[in-house]
């Protein structure tokens, strides 16, 4: 029932910036953790950043100091501000959300966005 819709992908030159947005719909409960993953051609999907409903953040080492994750709980939206982009950041970026509340016999529920392409040219 929960859907995640991503916006903001595109083409940018090295050193530039992009801001990704992911809006959740179809839910009335709080999403405990929201985050971003990415997958480049020939590589496995990797975690980029996460943020809890309380605002605690976590980043993979390669993006620390360059990317900032944030969320607006009222809008049920998570953002990823990407600065100082380089070609190694080129990938499909996927929004992810986890709900840990109990329903339908489980405490773990995970949702994925459709993915948005980020291409950084040198």
Reported for the largest beta sheet, the result is: 7 strands, mixed
Mean pLDDT: 95
* Proportion of helical residues: under 10%
List low-confidence stretches.
Answer: none
H/E element sequence: EEEEEEEEEEE
Q: What's the tally of helices?
A: 0
Structural class: mainly beta
Assembly classification = single chain
- Which descriptor suits the 3D outline? elongated
Q: What's the count of strands?
A: 11
What is the end-to-end distance?
40 Å
Work out the strand percent: over 45%
Please state the CA-atom Rg, rounded to the nearest Å: 14 Å
Give the SSE layout.
Elements: E1 3-7, E2 10-13, E3 18-25, E4 33-39, E5 46-52, E6 57-59, E7 67-72, E8 77-82, E9 91-99, E10 109-112, E11 116-121
Parallel strand pairs: 2-11
Antiparallel strand pairs: 1-3, 3-8, 4-5, 4-9, 5-6, 7-8, 9-10, 9-11
Q: How does this model look, in words?
A:
The protein is mainly β and 122 residues long. Helices cover 0% and strands 53% of the residues. It is built from no helices and eleven strands. Strands 2, 4, 5, 6, 9, 10 and 11 form a seven-stranded mixed β-sheet that branches. A four-stranded antiparallel β-sheet has the order 1-3-8-7, with no helix packed on it. A hairpin with a 4-residue loop joins strand 7 (67-72) and strand 8 (77-82). It is elongated.
